Amino acid sequence: SVILFFVLCFSSWAHTQEVINDRPIIGIVTQEVYKSSKAPVNATSQIYASYVKFIESSGARVVPIWIRQPKSYYTNLLAKINGVLFPGGGVKLDGSGYGRTGKIILDIATQMNDKGDYFPVWGTCLGFELLTLLVAKKDLRKACLAQDLPTNLTFTTGFKESRMFRELDRKLENSMKNRDVVIHYHQWCFTTQNFSTSGLDKYFKILALNQDSRNMTFVSIIEALHYPYFGVSFHPEKVVFEWPMTKTHKRIPHSPEAIQVSQYFGNFFVNEARRSNHSFPSKEMEDSVLIYNYNPVFTGKSRNNPTVQKYFFQ
Question: For residue 222, is it left (φ>0), alpha (ψ between -120 and 50) or beta?
Fold first, then answer.
């Protein structure tokens, strides 16, 4: 029976590899508006526009995913889109609409993938933390000092065997290893010890590490062993689309090498979404939910605001 199960699973995943969908649509989870957002009075949720641009610039379209909705809303929407991005932000994971929505989405995505219906999920910074919380079912974060911290990437043994990096060329690999091409904005980290003692290392493979400002080593890139789930503790979208020069946000790298690295991550995830054959039943339904129905606000002109643009939703 074990052999039969393996054959069936392999057959399902092999079939999904044949799917090439060149019109992918990716959902980005909204999150609660918080005090530092400079939000309109009536806004209840938001998305940083840099995430939208990050996805669009790699050849996909974006649908905002509302928080605090019934499970049926997420089940219906995920059956029509081709992947989900959990963005970074400043909300609490426990008790927030963002956190609860993330749990529902990952449960649905896992059910889909278990049936051979390929559905990728990406987590950036807070989204990375959310993925680990949902899998471990407890908060394993450790306080760290990684705010406005540009770094290179220290890859783990066997990283080139991963889905994320198996097509990485030598030139870009050298840039990732030897130049400060990613930017960190987080006060919580995961150590390799946390991963091993909690059993997370049986679900995720650690692909890269970094050190915070106090030289504490932490996990910076993960990939699920048996699911198309990926997480990065840094912000690839900021390198290309955020331009702050404030006291706490002034070290984002914008070098050609850093731009190429960020584009690599965006292209990788959108290519993963191309392996999903989900679609909307009509153009009218598709058009009604796309991010194009909303206009971003130029938040960057406000004093000390580290974000260039945001979408606010009522």
Answer: beta
Using CA atoms, how far apart are residues 301 and 299, in angstroms rounded to an integer?
Answer: 6
Q: Any bridge partners for residue 310, and if so which?
A: 48, 297
State the CB neighbour count (10 A cutoff) for residue 201.
Answer: 16
CA atoms lying within 13 Å on the CB side of residue 55: 32
Provide the CATH topology of domain 25-313.
Rossmann fold (3.40.50)
* Residue recorded with tokens 């029976």: 1
For residue 243, give the nearest of 176, 305, 310, 172 by alpha carbon. 305
Distance CA(37)–CA(39), nearest Å, equals: 5
Give the C-alpha separation, 81 to 90, whole Å. Answer: 26
37-87 confidence digits (pLDDT tens) = 678 888 999 999 999 999 999 999 999 999 999 999 999 999 999 999 999
User: What are the structure tokens assigned to 66, written together?
Assistant: 């509302």
Distance, in Å, from the CA atom of 314 to the CA atom of 232, rounded to the nearest integer, reads: 29
Q: How far apart, in whole angstroms, are the C-alpha atoms of residue 275 and residue 297? A: 33
- In our burial notation (b when 16+ CB lie closer than 10 A, e otherwise), range 64-88 reads bbbbeeeeeebeebbebbbbbbbbb
Angle at the Cα of 17 from the Cα atoms of 80 and 25, rounded to 5 degrees? 25
Paired sense of beta strands 310-313 and 45-48, if any: antiparallel
Strand partners, 230: 122, 223
Cα 205 from chain centroid (whole Å): 16
- Which are the catalytic amino acids? 125, 235
pLDDT digits (tens, 9 = 90+) for 173-223: 999 999 999 999 999 999 999 999 999 999 999 999 999 999 999 999 999
Rounded to 5 degrees, what angle do the CA atoms 290, 295, 300 make?
A: 130
What are the φ and ψ backbone dihedral angles of 85, each rounded to 5 degrees? -115, 125
